[in-house]
Fold this sequence. Notes:
It is a single chain. The protein is an alpha/beta fold. The protein is 55% helix and 13% strand. The protein has helices at residues 2-22, 108-114, 116-134, 136-148, 150-174, 178-211, 219-234, 240-257; strands spanning 26-27, 31-34, 37-40, 45-46, 50-53, 56-59, 64-65, 69-72, 75-78, 83-84, 88-90. A four-stranded parallel β-sheet has the order 1-4-7-10, with no helix packed on it. Strands 2-5-8-11 form a four-stranded parallel β-sheet, with no helix packed on it. The model is unreliable at 12-22, 94-111 and 268-278 (pLDDT under 50).
Amino acid sequence: MRxxxxxxxxxALLVGAFAGPASARTYDRGHTVFFxxxxxxxxxxxxxxxxxxxxxxxxTQGGLIDGNVRTYFGDFTQLDxxxxxxxxxxxxxxxxxxxxxxxxxxSTLDMFVANRRVWQNLAWDVVILFIxxxxxxxxxxxxxxxxxxxxxxxxAGTIALIAVLPLFVVLLLSIxxxxxxxxxxxxxxxxxxxxxxxxAMLVGRRLYxxxxxxxxxxxxxxxxLGLIITGAAQTLPIVGWAVTALVGVVGLGxxxxxxxxxxxxxxxxxxxxxxxxx
Length: 278
């Protein structure tokens, strides 16, 4: 019986020795707790930030959190032996306030800096929407050009961009034409804005018609939808710059082609009757 008891004790020790590490959890990209209570115990490791929303987390001896602990209407309890590499903070207190949970950042300012491209795109979209409301006919004509002549729009946009610098130099050297530089810049900005609106509207309309083939969206809805799609595409890490360049060049060319007489293209524009030569 003594030998049997020793064998049972040895088995219990072996099971205890292997059970601890086997149950250890590792969160490689941080960890988020939603509406629940959890315990980070011995061998558990959070490689990143721990975000707690409407929950409670207790970190005991042997638990490791590499980043910060941020609570949103929740509680965090750190017991002796728990290691936290960053800070323990409430996301709604003082300098640590945050408007977007579960995004790794140190402060609201850092969040805006990290997402600068997104905010820039949002501001540009507001400008595009404003331009569309001011010049709906120009956007409508540019939309027709880019839809019917995407190739010519790309060529015209490339030529326009190439001509910007030589024209600037000529106006600058002529001295008399220096005031016209302001008009050149304004024309370039207007062309980019009108063309961007046209391309975004085309993208939004095509996407809407793919989802609902038998309906056509309103111009405003198509524009907003297109701005969302193009803006999201521009934030991609590798091809985002190519999307921006493509939309800018094609849109600028479409706006430039919109200044050409409708009869030069041999068809109606925007459903308006084309004036035919007598």
